[in-house]
Design brief:
Blueprint: H1 6-15, E1 18-22, H2 31-41, E2 45-49, E3 57-58, E4 61-62, E5 76-79, H3 83-94, E6 102-105, H4 112-120, E7 124-126, H5 131-138
Parallel strand pairs: 1-2, 1-5, 5-6, 6-7
Antiparallel strand pairs: 3-4
Helix pairs in contact: 1-5, 3-4
Amino acid sequence: MDGVSDDEARSILTSVSTIAVVGASPNPARPSNDILGFLIAKGFETYPVNPGHAGGLIRGRPAFARLADVPARIDMVDVFRRSSAAGGVVDEALRLDPLPRVIWMQLGVVDEEAAERGRAKGVTVVMNRCPRIEFRRLFSGPQVMAR
């Protein structure tokens, strides 16, 4: 559906450094909190983005209200929002300067029109996938990735 090959997904996961997790929750029972913790453990520089928790900490990381508030260049935007809200997140990401290299929509999150807007700007768009699942699938066995 997203047209991203295993080689491209592998390249994304080995080349990005900074990841903004939009929709990150401070609630440890929420998948976004779990994935944020996974990304931190993998050594990524992570930035939780959630307007309801801006100014606080999520997994020990300062939370920001908007992508534009993140004080670093964002390589990848990880979208933990419903499909109906994903387009707004993509549009916000496409207003960043410089643009992120990747917009990654989590499992169950698909917005073809938003993906086309991102691709038209040269951004790689991944949809309906989880970085942790992709790590396990792509880097299991003898070629386990070390960050």
